Each structure stands twice: as structure tokens, then as C-alpha cells.
Amino acid sequence: MTQRGHGTRRVWLPAAFLGAFALVILGRLVQLQVLQHDAYARQTREEQTADSTFYARRGSILDRNGNVLAASVDTWNVYISGRTWRAPERSGPASDQLAKFLRMDPAAIRAMVANKNGDVLIARDVDYETGHAIAAAEIPGVVLLPDSKRVNPEGDVGASVLGLTGLDNTGLAGIELSHNGDLLGKPGKAVYERDTTGDPIPFGRSVVEEPRPGTDLVLTIDRYLQQMAEQKLDAAVKEHRAQGGSVIMMDPHTGEILALASSPGLKYSSLDLSDKKQVELLKNRAVTDLYEPGSVMKVVTAAAAIDQGVVTPDTSYVDTGEIRLYDVTIKNWDDRVYGTQTMTGVLQNSINTGAVFMVEKLGQPLFHKYLDAFGFGRTTGIDLSGEAEGIIRKPEDEHLEPPWSPVDLATQSFGQSISVTPIQMLSAIAACINGGMLMKPHLVRATIDEHGVRHDIAPTAEGRAISAETSATIRMMLEKVVNPGWPDPMQPRNYTAGGKSGTANVPVASGYDDRQIASFVEFAPTDDPKLIVLVKLDQNQDLLTGRVAAAPVAAAILDDALNYLNVLPSADAKQVRR
Amino acid sequence: MAAINHPYGQRRSLPVPVRLPGVNGWVLAAIVIAGLAAMLPVLQNSTATSRGFQVQRLDAEQTRINGELRLLEADVAQLTSLPRIQRRAAEIGLGPGETPIYVTISEPGPAPAKIPSEYLPGPAPKTDEPESWWQSLLKWVHLGQ
User: Fold this and answer.
1) Which among B73, B86, B104, B105 is the top mutation candidate for probing chain A, defined by the most A β-carbons within 10 Å of its own β-carbon?
2) Does residue A201 belong to the interface with chain B, where contact is any CB pair within 8 Å?
3) A432 and A521 in contact (C-beta within 8 Å)?
4) Which of A63, A204, A332, A397 has its CA 20 to 30 A from that of A138?
5) What is the pTM of this model?
6) How many CB atoms lie within 10 A of CB B38?
7) Contacts of residue B2, Cβ cutoff 8 Å, sequence gap at least 6
8) Helices (H), A483-550
9) How far apart are the C-alpha atoms of A95 and A107, rounded to whole Å?
10) Are A426 and A449 in contact (CB under 8 A)?
11) How far away is chain A from the Cα of B125, in angstroms, using its nearest Cα?
12) Does A334 contact B at CB distance below 8 Å?
């Protein structure tokens, strides 16, 4: 009995122990595989899977004829593992080898890596072929990561329109910024199972989303005309010792901008963003800066008055040289007395009292309604960021300082007490001469998607500003401004043209100071305008008027540009010679 | 009963066949199948790995070719850029034109260059086919209503 009892204990004690142990293991297995299954499965997936992002190719920017203005090329960023280069016997030969590819001083490379453990960026945007050569050389501790950079084959031509991209390849200014969403594309992503070395396991589970390349943009800009505009503007700024200026060329019927030059403007060749003055150049002054247009506004006043039927081109009045309104005397720009004048004469001689005559006939509500129809006081919607709305003093604005007075209406008729952008002014005059439609100025003509399919962007009419008959009348009146019957530097050599000058002092808190802005808007040919040009010179030190300083530049641009665009010379233009 | 003479005299016993250990054909087949089954994952793994390397190599090749393509596109753009054309024009003695002279001529312009027929659009589909009698009848009935 005793032996049997001992024998039983010898069996069941280990059995009980093993059973208990088995239960513990079983419990743990249940805990791991059943209760915490999801958590551990997730942890395993995270351990076994990796993901990587494929950056999409940024779209190219082309001019209206398909010439490349901006494109992206693949580059490499070169890093060095500081830990690998800690041993001098390794860093010495490696730096010598790397320096040959990068054309750098080996000692300088070693100094950049010295006392650093992590990866150190040695060179950014190394060209594609050099990067491949470095990779093939298998230099210890050198890591190459793919990147891309923007190239501008045309150099500085159109830089102020195109803008630029940052290190992360997103737009910072110009078209690169305003169309960043289209150009950027959509990055792709791959999630895959990886092996112990981190490489994807062949035919393992993977989810791959291909990157979608950015859209190419076809601009309305013509590279030749853009270069011409920039060169002529730079020459005019230099000749008239101006602080800067703008030249815009536009198709008056569609609102397509063929050239848009600003001075001072962005130049890739001398770009230094650490200089605060250069950061200012990122904005395009032709759409961001306001100015008082001066007498160019008389065209709008005349168009409104004729459209409303309160005057005709032959309506006459007597100019006494000045008008007294309340306690303010408004004089003509040249202090002259012109006597009896028609409305055409008002534009020809740029008579301030004549513009006041027209706006008084029109009345404030109607005049401001026309200003609205011509797009003043709001952005034109041009595809450049930072566009200014402009300022129009109106009676309903309660917070004006000084408050609104009827004198404001009078001065607005000849382009004071109103601030506009050059692009607004050009669009308004284009509406005056194109048949009466206010067209939205735009810089993008078409887009080309990832499959190479081109999508044209139709011109947008913002609305009718004046009737077609009024527009024809204004064209005729403006032709008489440019061609009064004798040779004048305002006239293009080969084309009939119409236009209007403006010279306005710069407003300051106490009124106006001696600084001036001289401008001229001109179109040609008069019977069917193909091109309208605005030339604006800021604070020209020689104090010449828009008619003398800006008009010859506009006329020369029209001659050259229309010839380039294969527009046949006007038969009537042979009568005039500059 | 007649005795039969034995040709060899004394009777010899027949040889007993050697009995091999019991190897069943089914067992052999199972072993072969199991062996093949064991080899299959190895072969699969080997093939998958080599294909995987091929795919990776082709991916890298595609990336390299795309990069070179973009580089070549940029090169073409650089070579056809306005500053380069103008510089080259100056090198060979060309300059901006003077004021153009436009001449009116009474002769017609040159005939447009002939385009090979394969590049011309095909003939327009005929739309004015004569109606069949029953189509005319249907139309007449419809008009009659």
C-alpha cells in the first residue's frame, strides 16, 4: 500500500506540475494569439512593411508656341554618413574620390562631416549624370537621394511672370505659385513587405499608387515679345532715369497677355533671397502695385459719356483753363486755355476741364457704374497672385479720410482720386476699343495633361462695358489723338494706331509731390486692333510726360511686335513717319 | 504406376526467391511526391527571388531612362532657347532686320506644298445618299398624317 501510494505521488506530482505549466503556456498562447491578436498582427505588419513616396514630375511651363520656359530635371542630393567617415583612414581616400566628382576641396568636405554622427548634406542638386557616376564609384559612406530642380532655358526672360520654386519644389512666386496645384501633380506611394535588409520582398503584398505627373502649362506669353518688352522697358527706364516701370502687351479681343515686363523685376541670374530688396522682386508690380493713372482715364470718361449719349465726339464746350469747384480750382495740366473744344479735342489735348465737363453731364452714380463695368475697384482675375483691387473714392464709403466730396468725382474723370493697377487700366482701355467687352486678362492658354492631351482655355468675357458703336467711336477718337495730322513720335511707322497718354503725380498724405508716373496706352491697327500696349514709367527723373517719354516706346513696340506677328502694315500708315 | 526416370537423377529443390523488405509501390510514389512537394517551394522561392531582382533592375532602368529623357528634353530646350539662337545668329553674321519693305504683287502665291496622300484626311462620309423607296414611303406616310 505504501509503495503504491509513493508511486502514485511520483506520477501525479510531475503530471500536475507539467499540466499546470502546460496550462500557463496555453493561457499565454490564448492571450497572444486570441486576445491580443489584432495588436500583435498590427505590430508585425508594421515591422514587415515599409512605405516610400515617389515624387511626381513637376509640370513644364511653355510659351504660346511651345518653347520651354521652365522644366524640371532629376538631380541628386549627396549625403555622407558621419559615422562611416569617423575613421581618418576611411574618410581621407573617400573625400579625395568624392571631391573629384563634386569639384570641391577634399579638406572642405571632411570639415563638413567632422564630429558628426548622422547623415550630412554635402551637395544639393548634383546633376543627374554626375550622381550616377558617384553611385557607380561606390564610395564608402556616400548616400545619394533623388531630387529635382527647375531649369529655365530662356534665362531671365519672363522670370517675373514665371516666378520660382522653393527647395521643396513648390511655387513661391509668379505662375509657379498661382498654378502650383496643377504643376505639382500628385505624389505616388508604395507600401510593401520588406526583408531583413529593408528591400521589398519579391511578390510580397504591396500597394502601389503611381505618381501623377503635374500638368504642363501653355502660356499666352510669347518669348520673343517678352524679351522685346523687357529690353525696351530697361532701355526706357535707363533713358528717362526712372525708378522702374511696366510694359504689358495684350490681345484686346481675348485678354491674352503676350508679354508682361516689370522693372525692377526678378532675375534668376542674380537672385539672392537673403537680400530683402530682392524678396520684393517676387511680386509682379504690374498686378500688385497701384498708381493714379492720370489722363488715360479720360478715355474711360469719354466712353461712358458717349455710351450714355450725354455727349458725342463733336459736342463742344468752352475751356477757360480752369474750373472752380467749392474751394478747389481745377486747372489743365499745362495751364493753357484751349477755348472752344470738341470732345475729340479734349482727348487730343488732354484737357482736364473737358473731362470734368463730361463727368458732370454723366453724374456720379452713372460714372461709378461705368467704372464698375470697366472692372475698376476689383481684381481682374489674372492668374498671378497678390493682385491689388484698386481704390475708388465713393460717396457711400463712410470711413474715407478726407471724406468724399464732389471734387473727387471731377478729379476721377481725369485719373486722380482713383488708384488702379496697370493690368486693370489696360483691360479697361481694351474694352473701350475691342467692341465694348471687358475681357479677363489671362496668362494660361492651355494645359497639357499627363497623357499629353491638350485642353485649351477659352477667353472669358467679364461683361459688356459699352456698346460696339461707342467702342468704334472711341477708336476713331483715339486715332486722332495719335495722328493729329502731323508726324509725332506717338505714331508707329507701319500701322495706324490710337492711344492716350497719362502723367500723374504721386499722391502723398498732404496731396501730391513732384514725383510722377508717365504712361501711354496704344493699340494698332485702328480698324481691327490686334495688339494693345501699356508702357508705364515710374518716377522718371527727367519729368517728361507720358506722351514724350512713354509713347515712343509703345509705338516702337507696336511696330516690331505686329511685324513679328505677321500683321500687314496699314495702308494709311504710309502717310505718317516718325 | 510407372516410374518416371528423373533426368538429373536425384531431385533438387527449386531455388527460393529472396524476399525483399516489403516496399510498397504506393509508398514509393508518396515519397517521390513528398520530395517533389518539398522541392517546389524552394524552386518557387528561387524563381520569385530572381524575378524580383529582375523587376527591381528594370524599375531602376526605367527610372534612369526617365531621368535621362528629362535631361535630354532640357538640353533640347537649352539648345533652342532664344538667347542661344541670337548668339549663334550673331556668330554667323545675322542681325535684327531693318524696317521691312512690303511689296504688293499681282501674281498668285506659290502653290501649297503637296502633302503625301497618307497624311491627308480620309474622304468625308457620304451623307447625301439617295433614299430607298420604302424610306420615301415612310416619310410620305408620316407627312400624310
Assistant:
1) B73
2) yes
3) no
4) A204
5) 0.80
6) 9
7) none
8) 546-549
9) 8
10) no
11) 26
12) no
